[in-house]
Amino acid sequence: MRRIKIENKIKQLREQNGYTQQDLAEKVTVSRQTIISLESGRYNPSIILAYKIAKVFNLAIEDVFEFDKENYK
What mean pLDDT do residues 38-60 have? Predict the structure, then answer.
């Protein structure tokens, strides 16, 4: 099974809102390492975590996360 890459705007949104990685981690109850991994694209979030992150920024999930539709079949 091929891994689907999900692009995200977490770092951009986090910086625009003046949050550190630690701030965001605390708001969504994960470790700072998880935020680092999400921002670098090494880790795809669960749907629950994606929802929590989107809600921090007052956005819909699809406004924060977008999977590569070209490579998904």
Answer: 96
